Amino acid sequence: MIDPDPLAEAELRELVPAVIGILVSRGADFATAEDAVQDALIEALRSWPSDPPRDRRGWLVTVAWRKFLDIVRSEGSRMKREERVMAATLAEPETSAEPGTDGVPKADDTLYLVFNEGHSGDVDLVAEAIRLTRSLRAMIDSAEVDGLLALMLLNHARRDARFGPDGRLIALADQDRILWNRRLIVEGIEILQAALGRDELGQYQAQAAIAALHADAQTVEDTDWVQIVQWYDELLALRDTPIVRLNRAVAVGEADGPAAGLAELQGLDKSLPRYFAVEAHLRERTGESQRAAELYVRAAERAGSLAERAHLNRQAARVRSWQGHRP
Fold it and tell me: Is 53 among the domain residues?
């Protein structure tokens, strides 16, 4: 296993402005250029330790431009799908979704995708997703659209605590809850309670209920993990996916202990996003510090952003440091 090279990371940071500038000069918009360069940085940090290029800047420009083109092609396809979805939804607002779903207009799925795209740092994109969801809620009487808006508000309420002053990602358990936006939390919970009162449970309402339980806890120790597990059970009944099961394993590990959480991981695909991070957390809690550190490093190698990658590498270093000081 190759550890990250701090010098390489420092050099990459110095190259970023120039590479973004080159992409913009070629016609890329600034926001997409930033995304493309970030993807290229992750690839560089994975490949350079074993195969360093002679022209690092040239390599980064080439890979970032390729990433940019991939994003543009993907975005074009996604926008066409979203336009069809929105048109169909607004043309027939009284109809339910296709058979086999929970009867939700498909536009809210699109809006949630937009919200998640911005959740990693693009506050403007998040705000736009919330605005559009409010508009959709005004046009469509749906408990699930209400649930989606509640979910967005509850998650967005934590935005100021999600990153430190130095840009470091801060895990939910370590966030300063004073920084959480209580106004958004109150609004989200009120909307959720009204939606749940209609007895038309859907996946977004279940997810919002989980977010509300986190938001309602004054400290991480106050979190009602037993009830969170129950809501994950409801969510599984609505949408049984590997990601939901992975998240449920975290909740089970908190409610019933790390061994129970590890048991829930059995049978899940290890290629799932965050799988190794979840296993590392649970292994650390069982006292398997060496194994936990190894898993944090593996999780970092597969991280979807530089902030997440740095966070997981810090977790690995912390566990190793703690292990080295044990008697």
Answer: yes
